[in-house]
Amino acid sequence: MLVGLVGTGGAYALFTSSATAETNASAEALVEEGGKLFVANCATCHGLNLQGTTQGPTLIGVGAAATDFQVGTGRMPLAFTGPQAERKPVQFTEEQIQALAVFVASKGPGPAIPADMYLTGEADVSNGAQLFVNNCAMCHNVAGAGGALTEGKYAPPLADIAPKYTYEAMLTGPQNMPVFNDTNLTPEEKADIITYLKYLDETPSVGGFTLGSLGPVSEGLFIWIFGLGGIVAITVWLTAKSN
Asked: What pLDDT does residue 19 have?
């Protein structure tokens, strides 16, 4: 029994040490790879030590979530200077994005990439709709169609956005968006909002043509162009008939 206990304990200790060493080596390799990518693609604006420059803010303490969002949605590297970063095709692979996120997170604590359990889109859609109306609709529109802000800035449309990026945007507050940390909106409430947005993506409009889901703006324009245009056309036709 003594031999068995010693042997089992020794094997467990050896296995645990090997697994820990392998994990540490993998993390160090990711940090090293992320550092190389950062120097080649990001350091010009953000500084070699993430301290920031006149061209870009410091990244110390922004965390993995902010890096994953900005790079994963193609907003970074920045294509040109403007009121805000434009979404564009992603420049890196998933592995490279992960390496960059790990590297930035290694330089200072910050929000982490969300757990998959909050990204399923299977939470409370009703509560998510109420939370979205209270916290997001004033900029993004109640249907998530987006809207204009001041000085050339805008709230982007939220259709067909990966749940991970929606969560990370709420968590980190990119561009002009406020930060909704876990005190403002709990992880469960963020999951509810993601479920509501998924519901909007999958549910057809019961009112017919959505006209961009922009509400009175697009509806009024439609009436002016097609409604009044049709009335004028009918008037001209009736007059021609009478003559």
From this structure: 46
What letter would DSSP give residue 113?
P
Q: Token pair for residue 16?
A: 């645990």
- Fill in the DSSP letter of residue 214: -
Contacts with 203 (C-beta within 8 Å, 6 or more apart), sequence order: none
Q: Tell me the one-letter amino acid at 89.
A: P
Q: Write the class of the CATH domain 1-110.
A: mainly alpha
The two structure tokens encoding residue 54: 């006149």
Confidence bin at 17 (pLDDT 50/70/90): low
- Give the model confidence (pLDDT) of 93-135 as tens digits: 999 999 999 999 999 989 999 999 999 999 999 999 999 999 9
CA angle 51, 56, 60 (to 5 degrees): 35
- Rounded Cα distance, 99 and 105, in Å: 10
Give the C-alpha separation, 177 to 139, whole Å: 9
Write down the domain spans for the chain.
1-110
pLDDT in tens, 63-74: 999 999 999 999
Task: Show Cβ contacts of residue 69 under 8 Å, excluding neighbours closer than 6 positions.
Answer: 75, 165, 168, 169, 172, 174
